[in-house]
Design brief:
CATH architecture of the largest domain: 7 Propeller
Number of helices: 2
Distance between the termini: 26 Å
Bound molecules: copper (II) ion
Strand content: 35-45%
Number of domains: 2
Structural class: mainly beta
CATH topology of the largest domain: Methylamine Dehydrogenase, Chain H
Length: about 475
């Protein structure tokens, strides 16, 4: 239901999926409609009855229903009066898969290979247990992404340190033998001789809006590198997809790089790649974006293509900030998600200390917390360069545990935003705890955690384990 407490009418327009109008309440005309037996993508929300100072007395409203049948992902609903839209009457709709899932990496031990548990985001039960690398008994890395473009999250896993680098993706669709049994691709993302491990992520970077790109970052021992692989997977088993792009987020650094992905700023509508260096370096988080703009022939010819120089191809670094004190060198776990929920804005960046006391911090590029509208797209005449991230939450979910054991973080989408997942040292082994984030007081400008529950402890594991979600 869209309720109008403003002093004007607003023709609301949605992208991608049409809606059906169930009721329009117009208190000025004194009318209340029934159901419209057709779909459309635009409906006028009438104005409310107001007093002489335009304070609303009787609200107007429109009730809609819609079926998200064709795509998962993010699109907008906005007022179709451009001055209203440009001043913030716009919100994002995030369509999540029917079965939203998240992954918990379970480290191996001598003679026992590492496994990955995939949990149903709705109810948390384990729906698959995967052994991604049968001869690997270390700690794998995990991410959830729609690698094959079927609107169902797939599992991406990477090898940890000590073995030749390998990445594998499992189909989240039930192919008869169950979900997460069929391999979509398996390949070596870096040179066979590299032993520093691989961090993994997935997002739409190359412009194919249906299937996500697999993204891999190097562990320590070589100059840190991020590779974005083509969303077109090779049919040949064991062959790597073509490299769409690669870059060096921390030139000269050999500490490894952690990667996460998400729509963390509202300026472009594109997913960013978020990076942090591994242990041994200051916790400098960077965001990179591929805008993929191309100058038109006319702009190229008359030399007016300069305004967006740097937006073609990519990646372009859009922000840089310290997630923790510069003296903290323990490494950073990264994720992104709509953990600020009702506060709006783009996805937040979540950072977790891999060492230290396991402090978790949440970073936003703008939301109702700092007075921004729920979503704000820049006007056609204004293009700010960098994106600024502000800390909106900080807490230590495993405070009091063994010093230095740290945490790892992920998020999993809900119908109202996302929950925050944190792994760390519980009394009976590794625990994964789930949190929501809320304002303590209506006027608070930061968020506090609300514990939502915990998975059964993993008695064979100690400390934090890698998590993956979307
Ligand atoms: Cu409007």
């Amino acid at each position: 239901m869209i309720t109008n407490l403003n002093n004007d009418e607003h023709p609301m327009h949605i992208h991608v999926n049409d809606f059906q109008v169930m009721e329009i309440v117009d208190p000025i005309a004194g009318t209340r409609t029934g159901v419209q037996p057709w779909g459309e993508d635009n409906v006028n929300v009438p104005a409310p009855v107001t007093d002489a100072n335009e304070n609303p007395l009787v609200p107007a409203s429109v009730t809609l229903r819609t079926k998200f049948t064709e795509y998962t992902g993010t699109f907008v609903i906005h007022c179709h009066r451009l001055n209203h839209e440009d001043n913030g009457l716009m919100a994002t709709v995030n369509v999540i898969p029917e079965v939203s899932t998240y992954a918990v990496a379970v480290p191996g031990s001598a003679g026992t290979p590492a496994t990955v548990q995939v949990h149903d985001g709705n109810g948390d039960k384990v729906i698959a247990a995967v052994t991604p690398f049968p001869s690997f008994d270390g700690t794998p890395t995990v991410a959830m992404a729609d690698v094959d473009g079927d609107m169902i999250l797939d599992l991406v896993a990477g090898t940890g340190a000590g073995v030749a680098p390998e990445v594998v993706a499992y189909d989240g669709n039930d192919v008869g033998s169950g979900p997460f049994t069929a391999e979509l691709t398996r390949f070596a993302p870096f040179d066979d001789g590299f032993r520093g491990g691989v961090t993994v992520a997935g997002a739409d970077i190359d412009g194919n809006a249906l299937a996500d790109n697999i993204i891999a970052g190097t562990g320590p021992g070589t100059e840190s590198q991020v590779k974005v692989f083509s969303s077109t997977l090779p049919t040949e088993k064991g062959a790597a997809p073509e490299v769409f792009s690669s870059f060096t987020p921390y030139p000269g650094s050999r500490s490894g790089v952690t990667v996460a992905t998400g729509l963390v700023d509202a300026a472009s509508g594109r997913a960013s790649i978020v990076t942090a260096p591994g242990p041994g370096e200051a916790p400098r988080v960077k965001t990179f974006r591929y805008d993929l703009f191309e100058p038109t022939a006319a702009a190229t010819a008359d030399g007016t293509a300069d305004e967006h120089a740097g937006h073609t191809g990519g990646p372009r670094m859009t922000s840089e900030f310290l997630a923790f004190d510069e003296s903290y060198l323990g490494g950073v776990s990264l994720s992104t998600g709509w953990v600020a929920g009702a506060e709006g804005g783009a996805k937040s960046i979540v950072t977790g200390m891999l060492g230290g006391d396991g402090t978790v911090r949440v970073w936003s590029s703008g939301s109702r917390l700092d007075g921004e509208p729920d979503m704000y797209l820049e006007s056609p005449n204004h293009h700010s360069g960098d994106v600024v991230f502000t800390q909106i939450a900080s807490f230590a979910p495993f405070a009091g545990g063994p010093p230095g054991s740290g945490v790892e973080v992920a998020t999993t989408s809900t119908t109202t935003g996302a929950d925050l997942l944190v792994s760390g040292p519980g009394p009976g082994g590794t625990e994964v705890r789930k949190f929501g984030l809320n304002r303590a007081e209506p006027q608070s400008t930061t968020l506090v955690p609300l514990p939502l529950g915990a998975l059964p402890a993993l008695p064979a594991a100690q400390g934090s384990v890698p998590l993956g979600g979307r």
